[in-house]
Write a structure and sequence with these properties.
This protein is mainly α and 133 residues long. The protein folds into two domains: 94 residues, no CATH class; 34 residues, no CATH class. α1 crosses α4 and α2 packs antiparallel against α3. The chain is flat.
């Protein structure tokens, strides 16, 4: 039992590191719905509430009159209250998916004519500045 506990914690962490940020992203997505204009106020609300309140809670730990364990629990509670912000960072800065290069995404506008002519959208936008003068 004692040997399986560390492995179960590791496996639980690995599963949670994948599922919890996805759940959080879907939860926020369902709150926003199809109206992208709702995302900015909602993000600002969550950012303010789950940054300001944890600081207020953890700041209470600086009072020396409180018991040591009460002070530690206030700091832990402050850290727990930052979880929504940490989940948002996990969604934003999580494992990036490989993005295709513009050349690999396929043609948008042909640059030549006839069969087999190469085309790429980046050729129209990536003009060297020396050719503009």
């Amino acid at each position: 039992m004692a040997r399986s506990l560390p492995w179960s914690v590791v496996v639980g962490y690995l599963i949670a590191s994948v599922t919890v940020p996805l759940y959080w992203a879907k939860s926020i997505g369902s709150q926003i719905g199809d109206q992208w204009g709702n995302s900015i106020p909602l993000g600002m609300f969550y950012g303010f509430v789950f940054s300001f309140i944890p600081v207020l809670v953890a700041w209470q730990a600086h009072h020396r009159k409180l018991n040591k364990w009460v002070r530690i629990s206030l700091v832990v509670l402050g850290i727990i209250l930052t979880i929504p912000n940490l989940l948002t960072l996990g969604v934003l800065f999580g494992q990036p998916k490989p993005r295709p290069t513009p050349e690999a995404s396929g043609p948008i506008a042909p640059t030549g004519s006839g069969p087999g002519a190469k085309s790429s959208w980046s050729s129209a936008w990536c003009v060297p500045s020396s050719s503009l003068s």
